[in-house]
Amino acid sequence: MRPVLHPALVNGRWGDPALYVETLFEKHVILFDLGNIDALSPRQIQRIEHIFVSHAHIDHFVGFDRLLRILAGREKKIHLYGPAEFVDRVRHKLHAYQWNLVDRYVSDLIFIVTEIGSSFETRTVSFRLKKAFAQDEIDQGHAVDGVIYREDAFRVSSAVLDHRTPCLAFALEETAHVNVWKNRLADLVLPIGPWLRDLKHAVIENRPDDHPILVGSQSKTGFAREMPLGRLRNLYNVTPGQRIGYVTDVADTQANRRAIIELVRGVDMLFIEAVFAAEDVALAAERAHLTTVAAGEIARAAKVRRVEPFHFSPRYHGQEKRMRAEVEEAFTASDQSLAAAGFQ
Description:
The chain is of the alpha/beta class and 344 residues long. 27% of the residues lie in helices and 32% in strands.
């Protein structure tokens, strides 16, 4: 299966948390956490459409100012999600600046901000540049089964964890994966091209057999014709979608472990903080963070396919090999050892 989701840690395993997830064949990008994003080019920032913020500690939210600086004056809508009181924090950020000249802007920048409470109650508001970012209430609701964002191709679920403040963990799931067989395209003398994206969307959206698909591109290849979806169904098969988990800044408690494991069980790739080394478990408890061992144990108990530790403390600079080895050792530990520790 060719991966559709391509995640990358903006600042590596040591810097401010920010996970940039590109979607194959799509223009939009999803961002988890909003730490320092200076490493992203303006073009990369302009592609972002949805940002999921775990909590508003400075290393997870300081990038909002660069985001605002790059996007102000452009026609853009950004969806932001965060824990309780997140709406107020975004409003304070926006209102720290003066917007008396917004009538001169041709384009409008809109932030749609949703905060998620401890029982998954939600509140959504908007802030528009052309209204000097005045706050407009949009909706109040509830995130059913923890799902806080959904579209035809993807959904994002969340868990509310404890970091001595509410902190969100996230799971991104591709609804289904449509695999197109190149040899079957060749058999029907059909080209490879952007039209396959429309085909995949139609499949994921459960369109009927008579739904028209424009095959090829008149402008690029000189070949374009409409075909009903039903005639194209032998070109592909559908498999379960790709899944990515994102967990950072959580205390190592049984309640947090249970919630994380339930959220990310079986994901293809788990990005999980491993702030402190195994020997510094007392310091991790004091700071409400995970150790390398805790991160590996959680990933093992959740039966994830691959674990990607990050958010290492600067105190371990030059020791990345050691930190990753500690995570991996706990991740590959026997089921018996995990059961004895009470994590299955």
